[in-house]
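Dear colleague,

Thank you for sharing your sequence with our group. We've completed the structure prediction you requested, and as agreed, I am returning the results in plain text so they can be pasted directly into your records. Please verify that the sequence below matches your submission; if there's any discrepancy, let me know and we will rerun it promptly.
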Amino acid sequence: MRTPILPTMMLGSWLAISPALHAQTKLEPIPEPPPPPPGYQPDPALEPEVTIRDRGEDRVEEYRIRGKLYMVKVTPRIGPAYYLVDRKGDGVFVKHEGLESGLTVPQWIILRW
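Please find the predicted structure tokens below.
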């Protein structure tokens, strides 16, 4: 069986370059957002209503706008939290592990040895 040398060499060179790149990175503070326009009043009906319930050892957070349930966050005692989201507003909830945008990254095989 052959030992893969190329990935080890690539990892070693990346570890050697990484601190140099990190040292060159300059962090700048984020500027303050501009104030809202004069006369703007937020619509309280558009603010989400959050109801938190403990069911056994799980925590369930229900998010509603204008009384309509659109998202449920479930935080189990063991394991990561997951979301149930009503994407179309038809009452059908789809499970998501996080609040990602739904973008799927292509995972092509480039090299196999």
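Summary note from our side: The longest strand covers residues 58-65.

Kind regards,
the structure core
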